[in-house]
Amino acid sequence: MLNDKITLKDLSVFSSDEGSSIFGLLSNTTTQAGKDMLRRHIQKPPATYEQLQQMQDVIKYFSIHTDKWPSVITNGTLVMLEKFFDAADAMSSQPAGFSLVFGQFFQKYFNKGEYFFTQFSLSHLSDFLKGCVELTKLLSENDLPEMLRRHLESMQQELQHRLTDELVQVDKHTPFRELAKLSYKARREMKSPTLRLIDAYAKLDAWQSMANAGNKYGWVFPKLLSQTQSVLEATDFYHPLLQQPVPYTIELSGKKNFLLLTGANMSGKTTFMRALGVGALLAHLGMAVPAKAMQVSFLEGVITNMHVEDNIIRGESYFFAEVQRMKLTAQQLQNEGSRLVLMDELFKGTNVHDAYECTRAVINGLLNHPHHLMILSTHLYEVAQHFSNNESIRFAYFETEMREGEQFYFTYRLKEGISNDRIGYRILQQQGVLSLLDKSKTIG
CA nearest 347: which of 378, 316, 381? Predict the structure, then answer.
């Protein structure tokens, strides 16, 4: 699955405020290296159905075996190792002579910096190798997913270094004489293997982070279907960033691959599409999703048309930016494989008549691509009515309840059919905008 920056932005995957992003929900890593690896995994999910299945098996394993994760490795461990091996470039000769004769006492009181750096660094290197060794012990288990087995076998190969056993034995009682010799040898011989091990550990850290996120929020693993069919069925799915989300249920397939959403502004259409887009993305990371149940065919990507921006420097209007985004969408639909396309209130940058004509023309074109899954929202009631007899389209709307005193209430619940709610004028009245404008101001 490939998703561009605009899609990731529309779905609030990344944000300067990490706490209000999908990435923030998933980030349960123990190290910064793992966090960076998680970000890269989101930006570049598994490329094939087979790889996605294998990834899901790994994350399922970690979600079940939470006790298998070593606690000995921390972010401070990897930070210290980076400093330790960076200092290797300044090493020119093996420690010997006077410094080793007087040993620990001399170093501790007359060369404190080097003494504590050596002791602290070797301790962290030992902890890191212990954690890696602990992880490779999982290779003895029969139910280990194949992708995880291959990954751990490559780590095991790196751990075959002649210094590994000695370094694993390092503790607070190890004499400084031995620490100094080991430090010299490790700096000369183990920089490349250790950096490869850190990279391998970071991937594991990202995988267990996604597993922990699913456990933490009570999400469920979706059933993944092959590309031979275009299906997205979700029961009681919801947007994970909402404190009190309203669940939705949807079914899209090749026979009815298009959902046309109607409803008043603020009724929940955009949140619904974002929730579905986030669910599809999480499923294609191999992890659990915020839903009671979901099954989805392998998608080549999610394409959003939600919040386009004009470009003053280039002299491009908002409407032109909308057209360019729609052009990119059309180009993507020419490629093989299925995609999930989410379109929210198209052509807001032009007048109502133009918006109606353009939206209708786009829908006619989109219906020529039944192997994609598409959702389009509009508050143009006339657009939905125009296609009301098309059997390829599902129609759903978000209801607005009217109560006593002309008060309206959003239920945020999805219903079958077409809405004709028109509450814009009432909102203006309710917020006192019209009464303020009616007041005349005496000048002079």
Answer: 378
Domain ranges of the chain: 31-217, 223-438
Q: Partners of 258 in the beta sheet?
A: 374, 393
Rounded-to-integer distance, Cα 277 and Cα 299, Å? 11
For 31-217, give the CATH class: mainly alpha
Per residue in 135-168, pLDDT tens? 999 999 998 999 999 999 999 999 999 999 999 9
For tokens 């890593």, the residue is 29
- Residue environment code for 25-38, b if the CB has 16+ CB neighbours within 10 A, otherwise e: bbbbbbbebbbebb
Residues 199 and 181: their CA atoms lie apart, in Å, by 26
What's the Cα-to-Cα distance from 214 to each of 62, 205, 207, 223, 421, rounded to whole Å? 10, 14, 11, 15, 38
Task: Domain 223-438: give its CATH code.
Answer: 3.40.50.300
Nearest CA among 201, 241, 169 for reference residue 81: 201
pTM of the model: 0.88
How do residues 285-308 score in pLDDT, each as one tens digit?
A: 999 999 999 999 999 999 999 887
Q: Which pLDDT score is estimated for 30?
A: 95
